[in-house]
Amino acid sequence: MSAAANIPIIDISGDQDAVAQQLVDAAQEHGFIYIKNLGRDISVGDIDGAFALSKKLFDAPLAEKQACTIQTNNRGWSGMHSETLDPKNQKVGDFKEAFNFGEFVNGKAQQPLPPTVAGDEPQISAFADSCHKLCRKLLHLLGIGLDVGDFFSSAHSTNGESSSILRFLRYPPPDQTSRSGDDIRAGAHSDYGSITLLFRLKGQAGLELQKKDGTWAPVPVCPPGSENDPSPPILINIGDLLSYWTNGLFRSTVHRVVFPSDNEASKVEGETSAGPRYSIAFFCHPAGSVALEPVPSERVKNFVPDESAPNENPYAERKVMTANEHLFMRLKASYGTLYDEKKP
Ligand SMILES: O=C(O)CCC(=O)C(=O)O
Ligand SMILES: [Fe+2]
Questions:
Q1: Taking Cα atoms as reference points, which of 28, 31, 12 lies closest to residue 20?
Q2: How many whole angstroms separate alpha carbon 312 and alpha carbon 327?
Q3: Residue 4 placed within a domain
Q4: In angstroms, what is the span from residue 187 Cα to ligand 2's centroid?
Q5: In sequence order, what are the beta bridge partners of 272?
């Protein structure tokens, strides 16, 4: 059995003050949190439906996807090897394809959609809305836990203007697609937004997080205790912005998606990396002009970073900037040429 990351599973329907404390503790200790999924916040049917739409979209003719190629607004389709999440270490881009949906306005996408899924726009928009609502609930609870009231949640009260992204991801089957030793499904990175929701499918291995000591631990889809739930827990992770706002108290933990390995320590019982892998992420972003200054919380003020721990996140450097400036810096590093080409 593997040394899986010891992330707590939290039932957010419990006593709200207690839940808020548990969330803050997990955000500080792990930067990752499992939310017990009883279908209350997002129904199991809606999650299954989103995965079915993701498969439909990726199965669409290549020309339809290419016509929606990702733009500098971070919306659209990115093909194999086009995004490099760990540009300092990767020789080739990520072994995956992805489709980014920006915020919908009145149920309408503000970007081209492949005709194959155009009729599904209401369902995709509703799913993005449910994700945004759940993120705001979590942000509200994190604010309560830090004693800063509704600061985080209000910063995310956006109306079609934030950089929040609903992202469908498909990782091709490793043995049916040619690859070299340099390939990785998703390079090591921290997330660029405030908070990320991640939906995965039972049995599909690959996600790993970097522990404080610098070693990697697998993040099981169904951790012990969730086996009998109607759907795997929703995995939450803290992004760079919450780390800035809390002066490093909350960890924007580095993670990656790997191929099958021979290393027993990285295996999770009941999971395999053999087939294609699908995941769905929702990256929640605040209004772009929000400044990333530390919030006035006693717990943040009293936090002393562990200087002896390896600095696992190269972006954890604390500088005041706005949410949009930070996002642009990260996107430029991952899609270098796209952003260079568009320079005036
Ligand atoms: O596919 C996954 O499990 C993780 C994807 C991820 O970390 C990302 O897109 O930021
Ligand atoms: Fe990520």
A1: 12
A2: 19
A3: no
A4: 9
A5: 204
- At 308, is the pLDDT very low, low, confident or very high (cuts 50, 70, 90)? low
Taking the CA of residue 191 as reference, the ligand 1 atom at the shortest distance is 10
Cα distance between residue 32 and residue 237, in whole Å: 4
Q: Give the environment of ion ligand 2: residues with CB less than 5 A.
A: 191
The answer to the question of residue 217 being in a domain is yes
Contact in structure between 137 and 23 (CB atoms under 8 Å): no
Q: Which atom of ligand 1 is nearest to the CA of 235?
A: 3
Predicted structure pTM score: 0.94
Is residue 40 within 8 A of residue 132, CB to CB? The reply is no
Instruction: Name the residue range of residue 294's domain.
Output: 9-339
**Integer Cα distance of 176 and 83 in angstroms:** 21
41 lines ligand 1 (CB under 6 A): no
Q: Please give the Cα distance from 14 to 230 (Å, whole number).
A: 18
Ligand 2 center from residue 234 Cα (angstroms): 14
Q: What is the CATH number of the domain that holds 125?
A: 2.60.120.330
What is the H or E stretch that residue 339 is in?
helix 336-341
The predicted complex's ipTM stands at 0.99
Identify the residue whose C-alpha is closest to ligand 1 atom 3.
207
Inside any domain, residue 1: no
Looking at the structure of the chain, the number of domains it has is: 1
Kindly state if the Cβ of 10 falls inside 6 Å of ligand 1.
Answer: no
Q: Using one digit for the tens of pLDDT, what is the confidence trace for 108-138?
A: 999 999 999 999 999 999 999 999 999 999 9
Tell me, yes or no, whether 37 lies in a domain: yes
Question: Could you tell me if the CB of 258 is within 6 A of ligand 1?
Answer: no
